[in-house]
Amino acid sequence: MTKVIIRQMTVMDIDRVAQIEATSFSIPWTKDIYYKELTENPYAFYFVVEKDGLICGFCGLWVVIDEAQITNIAIDPNYRGKKYGKALFQYVINQAIALGSARLSLEVRVSNLVAQNLYKNYGLVPGGIRKNYYTDNNEDALVMWVNL
């Protein structure tokens, strides 16, 4: 039987997270950014989802006072469509609540309807547009949020 766990990310996970990042985003974060997030940012919380001991996705969360912001979320393309993103997103919402967050927000590409539908399933609603937010192609970002 396969085992899926979700846990806090460690610096030992950065190489694998960077691989997923590179396959998921046109302008991926560097390993150094993840290292700094994990070791220097007191507001940052990062989580990974593992299947049979292999990291297949990750999600970052910043919590400042009672506001939570998803920094990024990605699932390895080979593991998409298998509900790992859904499980990870629910876990991160629960962590945000446990950390005292009253509200959660994120940005998503206006063209990323799959992600938007996932977020809508958790009650997130559109809250505005950030024009030319993504620097690779100047695509707008849809800001979505939910009261927890």
Automatic annotation (TrEMBL):
UniProt keywords, alphabetically: Acyltransferase, Cytoplasm, Ribonucleoprotein, Ribosomal protein, Transferase
One Gene Ontology CC term in the entry: ribosome
Full protein name: [Ribosomal protein bS18]-alanine N-acetyltransferase
Similarity comment text for this entry: Belongs to the acetyltransferase family. RimI subfamily.
Organism: Aquibacillus rhizosphaerae
Annotated PROSITE patterns: GNAT (PS51186)
EC number: 2.3.1.266
Function (record text): Acetylates the N-terminal alanine of ribosomal protein bS18.
Keyword Protein transport: no
Keyword flag Transcription regulation: no
Catalytic activity: N-terminal L-alanyl-[ribosomal protein bS18] + acetyl-CoA = N-terminal N(alpha)-acetyl-L-alanyl-[ribosomal protein bS18] + CoA + H(+)
